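Milestone M4 deliverable, item 7.
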Amino acid sequence: MNKFIPGQLVISKAGRDKGRMFIIQAVVETDFVRLVDGKLRPLEKPKRKKIIHLQATNIHTDILDQPHVNNANIRKLIQQYQHSEEEARLG
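Output delivered:
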């Protein structure tokens, strides 16, 4: 069973984007997904990445299903989750 689904927030574990948060745009094959973050990887040019290089989170969003989604919306959403994660870690 694949634990990665479109709309899920994930964190890169390997590569030059290590530590960055992305949203899964699509599951391409059994081993690959397409990722967007609205900045380095906009909706128009998603990154193809192996799922073994990703850390799954239990955060899911339906932002990609919205009709007028753009890169700015994606950036804001990821930024909100990053700030809430940092606050939780700091206590």
